[in-house]
Every structure is written in structure tokens, then in C-alpha cells.
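Standup notes
- HV: blocked on the assembly model, inputs below
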Amino acid sequence: MQLTPILLLVMVFSFSLVQANETLSARSIMDKVDAQQREAADATLSKSRLSSCSFVIKNRKVVCTEAPRVKLMESVSRQLGPDKKDNQTISIILEPASERGIGMLTYSYDDAQKDTESWLYLSALGKVKRMASGSGEDQEPVSLFGSEFTTEDMESGKTDEYDYKILQEGPYSGNQVWVIEATPKPIRLKKTNYSRLLIWVDQTRLLALKVQAYDKRGALHKRTVFKQFEKIEETWISRDLTVYNLKIKRLSKMKTEKLAMNIDVENSFLTQRSLTDFAYREKTLAALRKFF
Amino acid sequence: MQSVLSKFNHFFEAAPQRFLPWRWSIITLFFAISAFMIYGMMTHFTMDMSLESWFQEDDPTKLSLDKFRSEFGSDDGIYLVYEASDGDVFSEKSLSVLRQLHTELDNARVGLQLDGKTDLAIESMLPRIERVDSLYNARYQIAEGDTLISNKLIAVDFPKTSSEREQRRELALTQENLELSYYSKNFHFGGIILKTDFGVVPVSNDQAIDNNSIDLLSEDEFEADAVFSVDTNLQTEKIEFQDMQMDEYLNFMTELRDITGKPAYQHFNFYFTGNAAMMEFALNNMKQSAWLLGLMVLAVVALLWILFKSWSAVIWPILVIACSAFWAIGFMSWLGITLSTMVSLSFMLILAVGTADCVHVMSAYILYRKEGLDHRKAMINAYRKTGLPIFLTTITTMAGMSALMISDLPQIAIFGFNSALGVGVAFIFTIFLLPVLLDIWHPYNSKKENKKKYKQNGQKQNSHKGWLQSLLDTIPHFVKPRSKLIVLTYLSIFAAFVYGATNVRVDTNLAELTKEDSEIRVTYNVVDEQMMGGQNLEFMLDLGETDALKQPLVLQTIANLQDYIEVTYPDFVVKTFSLADFVKDTNQVMHEGQESYKRIPQDPRLSAQLLYLFDNANPRDRRNIVNDDYSKSHISIQLRNKGSYEYTQFFESVQQDLEQHFIPLKAQYPDMALNVTGGLSLMMELIDHISWAQIKSFGFALTIITILMVISLSSLQAGLISMVPNLLPAFFTFGVMGLLGIPLDTDTLIIAPLIIGIAVDDTIHFIAHYRDAWFELGDVDEALKSTIKEVGQAVTFTTLVLAIGFSMLAFSDYLGLAKTGIFGSLAIVVALSSDLLLLPAIIHWFKPDLGRRRYLAKKAEKPTGDVSCN
């Protein structure tokens, strides 16, 4: 069971870039949007709130029909390796109470031959377990904390696996955008739940404003909407993204409540010790939280 | 009443005369309306072949299945069992063939072609597979020291050596959930589960397809606010799903068989189970029965020709029957009523009743011609003799069929209406159209006949009339001295049949309704004995409270119920699956694989944290088992194939077990709702429901027919006497089945009204004729002689035609239909014997007055009046 670094969720498709002054091909736009992801995930501390609920549309407004289920977590991540393409992330669950203290540590590598390593700590059990779950084509999209977000919705670095096409260009909710269609190539096809994606990319900031995913029958399945953009350390990020599963009328909202970038994380923090040693972890995190 | 009937009689007598001047107008009108109806049939005919179409919209069983599907996805998949020809699914050959097959199915799922191109053709049904699961991609979970390994058994890490393969076999053996699902205990068989989206495609989905034309820069249909309001009073809209049609199942199976039939997979012998395989079987049967129905028509044609030796006697009845069917179906089509496969039964009924109507008229007509009357006179006499009985048989059959309209199953009600309509139309054609047609071209050629007579020099009558008529002539002589013996013999046989009928088991076992070596029967044997069973049932659990299913107490209750069900019903249950299994397995793995930890933990925090792992699984897989807020889940129960009788009892029993086990939780979860559901329970409920609905409406029809007989014969005595030969064929069928231990299945029950309809026809003709003769002659012997002479031939003709026609169905591979053919034709013969032997014997013995005294008194009052009944 692999956990995608929490911060990546927030950053996907939402990165600053040099001005897009020339006519870019769909693929190169997406490459540039995607390429910023790794930079932004380097040395970051964040506190995120993930709320999910069933919803209805009433007078064009979204209304939850139940009290949202909330998960609160804190994550630290950094990029490593020659091109900063490898990632290490640790996430600790703060809420709900029954899951408090569950921790997940993940090392993922750009090298496809190298399996992702992850360790899980269940606080109710007090033990760390190394999780081995295969890799490559054996991986399937999984849910993030039981929310509507899946690893697939949040993935980056997979631009090779899609064909891109600009469908339309023009103003969209106050921004000049490209609407780019991403169609999975055969290599992607079996791993995906979608037949195609549409991405609304802001031309000036080169970040996604909206992503729509279509199911195998071509019907709209999910819509992800990005809000609350902020430029931190030369990087545009969205601190509020919501995925609407239109098939089953359920949404999940990921809100980055607190964020600190370019923090100084010691190497020893992203190890198993942080999962089990509560005192050590709290001490280190307390120091890092000052950067919020 | 008497005068009403005699008015009818006059009307029918005069009908041929009255309508002849208008014959061209009648024919034109007939063809115009027929064309209109055929046009309606061709343009507006709709047929719903889905299982759901049998239920009313608000049927609780259907609603609970809909609810289940909207919560947990489709339960309507395919379980493909394969038998390795080398007897080991873990052999090198078997694993590599499985790899190829699994990959091909997985490619077909995403529309990936062999040349690497994708083609998600809408016409193809295979992309409706959502998941392919087999040994190839089955995930195992084990603990190795502090490492928790959760990998696919084969997949990319394909075992190359024999020791590697043995290691996978050992691994598979440690995983309880893989056994019987993906491999049999002796490793001869393997299983591939194809999960589909059958029955869970939202109705509105089609509108969403191809929205390329929409301006992508336009605003969304709702605003994505940063903060949402919460209103727990609002209900999420109910999602409606598209019903699966039978041809969709058939297409799916055809495409699937195209794959498994490839030479590359010859190493495997395949067995298909699941609804799709069942529907494929049913549809193929229907195609075969369409052929048999054609054969039935051919048999009728051949017999009509043999009996009447005239093409007009063949073509006119067939025209009447065909057009009655066109009108009935065309009318329904114009009304926009969706028909079901039962329309073929309506056709059978129209065929039977229409044939009987025409044969009676033509038989009487020929009889009068032979007596020397000319064409017009013979027509008038024929209609005078047969018009009223035909009218009465029509009314009784229509009443019997209309009785089905009280059914709460829409398809049965529509079938009743359509059949009643067809029978009514056939009557109208017989009375108004047939005389006109017979006037143009009629069966009896007097010149030819005279020539024949001349040849035979009056010594001998022609051969077919000879044997039948002389046989009929012996009946009165045979019956007269033995009337009591005959009645008592019939009575004792009747008693035996009634006893037998009380022992008949109302039971439909779909697999056992096929021949011994049929594919479906072999499949169910294999899947039930070697693998996890071909049927499935679901317990739907709605605790009504968020996170309830994370509580150890609830999980323990589920686990206990599973254990109880597995131990208590070993004949039915092969395996059970639930969320509790996941928690138990994960608990064990988290405790270094120790067997003692294969249980639900006591600590609610631990059970919640074990489920946290589950939360992070593929959301669709998780949602297949538990809903988002952990208030609803289900227990899947894999079953062996049984008959509806056993299943129905089993379902009731487990429903009680389910409730019993959850009683202790009622205080904590007062809003708890528990249900037994699934496609199988829907099917079984349907079968059981149809059976009892048929039995009820059958009884109702009998009552209505009795009342109508009493009224129309204006004599309680006559009405009751006539019911004896009517009941005999029905009790004969049920009685023989009961005595021989043959279960009475839904299909046979559906046909029962047809049989009684035909039996009633003959009896009405007989009684009506006898009464007329009795009134006129006042002598039982003479009246019987004349009745047997005049009606006997027609009744024997119709019996021959219909019995041989129905017996064609005996050639069906499907016992449900074959039984109908055999018992149907036997019942028709029994009806004939009771009309020709029992009825005369009763009359001889009891000499019922049938209201003759009243008739004579009235006649004396008005010597010139119109009370005549003949």
C-alpha cells in the first residue's frame, strides 16, 4: 500500500513557470506544468485537512447532505537524487481520534526498476511494518485516506503515458486558458479508471484551474477544481482543491491549512524513528512549525 | 337468459347471410386494418427482456437490489471456471495459458486490440467488464518478520522454474480467500471472476456521452465554492440504472466465447456461470422454441390438410390465426405497451383457440354438405350449430385470461390482456370473416364428392370419414350399458390424480430443467462441486450510524453469522465473504501471521486502524464492500445451485438467522435495516411469485369459467357437469407430475391456462350441442348419438391438431418447454376422452334435465315465439 506524498496532492498541476510567450505544443505545456511539481515538493512541511461528503446541487450551490468526514494530517517531504527526482515523505494522522498517530513513511524513486519503499505505523498496535506491494504494472490507482482523491488523480511525471491535444483556447473564469485533452496511451490504459482527461491550464501562471476525468463510456466521472492560489518562493500553488465524483455525487476537499516551504529538514527525520518515537518527532516538528 | 342466448343463436345463424353482400367491403376493411396493425407492429413494437421488467417499479425486492447496486456496484458478473487438461492449474502450461487469457480479457476490458490500437467500440460488450480477477493477479498478504508483503501471486513476477511455481502454489494455499475462488482443492480447476457494470449504468449516463460539442470555456453547471454548507435534511438524488436486456447478455457471451474458443486456449475446458450465461442459455432456448413454434404451425397445417383434404381449409384458418396475432400484437404496439417474451405464449393460445374455432365451423359445414345441403344452407346450419358454443368458449377463455390481469406482475397482466384480446379477435374473424372467405373458396366440392360417391357406388363411405365416424358411432353403444362403470372408473382415476396433485412440488431448478448432459447442467455440477458455487446471495447490512462497521462488536457479529451460516447450511453454502474477513486477515498479518490473531480485535482503535489500510485501497474495491461512512456493508454468500422450492425456504431461514444474530445490536443501532438480496433472490422471488400467482389465477379462472358455464347453459346442473371433464385434464397434468415426482415449474404453470382453455372449448361444444338435441328430441340416447355424431368429429379434429401441434414442443432441449409439450398434448387427449366417454356416461347415469322442462313450458306459452334454441 503506497501513500502518495500529501503535499504532492496540493501541488499537482499548480506550479509557476516562465512566461509562456511562444506557441507551445500541448505536450510541452503539460511537461512544463508537470516539471514544476518536484521543485515544489522539496523540503516542505504542511498541515492539511481532507473533508469528504455526499452532496447535492441546490440553486447552483454545492450542499453536503451529511456532516463531512474529516481527516487532518501533517506531512514533511523532500526531493532527493541527482535531478531531485526521488522523494521522501512522512505523514502523520492527527484526526480522527481513532486513527491518531498512524504514520506512513515513503521513499519513491524515479528509476522505474526501483520499488517504492514504505513503512506503516499503527499506533494502536505500536509496531512499524514495512510494506511491500510490488511495483510497475502491478500497481493500481488507490484511494487517499478513503477520500475521492486517488493516486491517479494526483500523479505526476507520467506525461509520457498520455497523448495531449489542445482542444480550445480562450477566457475561462477570468483567466486565459488552454483546454488540453489527455488521452491514455496503451501503457497507461490498464492502470487507469479514465478514458480521457481535460485540463484547463492558466496561460500566464501555467497551472491547472480545473481537471475533468471521463469514464470508459465517455461520461464525466470526476471534476477537480483548484482554488486559493498563492505564490510561495516563486512557485504557484493551490491551497484548496476539491474533487467532485459526479457519478456517485461525493466530494472531497483538500485544504492546506498551513504550509512552509524550503525548510531545513534533517536527514534523520525522514526515517522509521519518526514513526515510533513520539517525543523525537514532536520535538522536531515543533521546531519546523515555526516556518508556518 | 335463455332468450338472450337464443338471440345470439339467431344472430350467428344469420351472420353468414347478413354479411355476404358486404363481403368485399369486409375483406377490404380486414386487409386495411391488418395492414395498419402490421405497420404498428413493425414500427412501434417494443419488447423488454430484462429480469427487472417482471417487477413493478415499487417492488420491495427490486428496490432492495437497486439499493444494493447503487451502494456496492454490480453483483451481476461472470464466473468463468476453467479445467486444465493436464490436471494442474499451477503447471507451466496452465500458468502461461492463464497469463495469455487474463491479459487478453484485460485488454478487451479497455478495448485494447492485439495490434496495440485502442478501440472502445460502443457495439462491443466486453469493455463493460470492470475487473478481471484470477490466480494471475490475485493479491496475497503475508507477514515476513516485520515486513508485510502484499503482492500479486503471478503477474509481472512470472514463475519460470518448477520450484518457483511450487512456491506460488504453497503461497496460494496459505490464502483462504483464494481457495475455491481461483483454484479447486485438487488444482484441476481454476476460476476467473469478471466483474461488470451490468445493472449499474445510470440511466442519465447516455446524455453525458460525447459532450465535445459543449463550449469548454463556458461556466460549470454549479459553483465550486471554497466553503460548503451542510444540510442533512437534503437527500442525495436516487440514481436510476439501466436494465440489462437479454440480447446484451447474449452479445457479451458471444464475444467472450469468441475469445475462449481460440486455439491458444485449447488447454482449458471452460465453464461459464452467472446471469449472463443463464440468459444466453434462455435466449438460445427461446430461439429454439421459435423454431418449434414454427414446427407447431406446420403440424397444424399438415393435419388440417389431412383432415379436410382441401387447401381452403388450411389457408383460411391460418389466415385467421395469423391476423388475430397481428391485430393483438399490433394493437398493443400502437398503445405503446412493452411486451415480453410471453408474447409467444399468447401466440400459442391464439393458435389453439383460432384453430378450434375454424375447425368447428368447417367440420360442421362439411357434415351438412355431405348430408346434401348446398353451400349457403350448409353455412347457415354450421353457424347456427357452432356460433353460440364458439362465442361461449371465447368468453370463457377471455375471462380466464383476463383473470391474469389481476396479477401484480406487470408482464403477466399484459400477457393476460394480450391473450384475451387475441382470442377475442380470432372470434370476430371466425364469425365475420370466415363466412366471407368460405364463400369465395370452400373446402367441400360437391361435384368431386359426388363423383367419389358414384365410384364407390354407395357401398362404402370415404376412408377417413369411415374410421372416425364409425368409431364415434360405437361410443353411444359402448357407453350406454357401462355408464356407471365408466363414471366410477374415471372417478377413481380422478381421485388418484387429486391425491397426486396434492403431492406436486412447485419447484423450478433452472439447471435441472435442461438435459442431463447439457452445458449448463455440467457447468453447475463442476462449479458447485469443485469451485465456489455458481450462485450468490447478499446480506445487506445498514447499521444506520456512521463508523458502526468499524466497531469490534459489529464486526464480531458479522463473523459469527458467517460461521453459523457456513456450519448450518453446508448443502447450500460454499463460502462467505465480508468486511470482517478483511479485519481478521489483516489482524493476523499485522501480528506476524500468528494463527491465534486471525480474529476480530477487541480494541476499537485497532479495528479502526486495520480498516484504515482498507480505506487506502482502490476506492471502487472498497466501495464494493463497505460504503463511505462505514454505516453499510454486506456479506456475500456463495451458493450451490438448487431449485426455487429449496431456495425459497433457505432464504426465509437465513433472513431469520440474520435478524436473530443482530438482535443484540438493536439497542445500540435502532435504525438498523437488514436485507437478503441479490440477483438470485430476485430471480427466485420471481419464480416463486409467478408460480403462486399462476396457481391463484388458475383457480380464479376455473371459478369464472364455472360461473359462466352455469349462466350460459342456464342450468347449475349443466354447468357443474361440464366442469368435470374440464377439471380432469388439469388434475391429470398436476396429478401425474405429483405421482411421478416431477416438479411443477414456472414454465409449465404458465401454460396451464392454455390447456384448460382447450379442454373447456371441447366441453362447451359438446354440452351445447347435447342440450339442443335433448331439448328437441327429449331422448337421452338419441340426443347423445346426434351430439357425438355432429360434435365428435370436430372435437376429435381439434384434439388431433392441437395435441400433435403441442407435442412438437417435446423436442425442446429445455425441459420446461418439453414438459409443457408432453403434458399439454396428453392433457388435450385426456380432455377428449372425458368429453367422449365420461360426459356421455354421466349424462346416461344422471339424465340431467338441463332446463328442458322450463324450455318446454315457455314454448307451450308462446307456440310461435322465438325461444328456440336450435
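- HV (later): unblocked. Confidence is low (pLDDT under 50) at residues 206-210, 458-464, 865-870 of chain B. The first helix of chain B runs from residue 2 to 19.
- Next: hand off to the docking folks.
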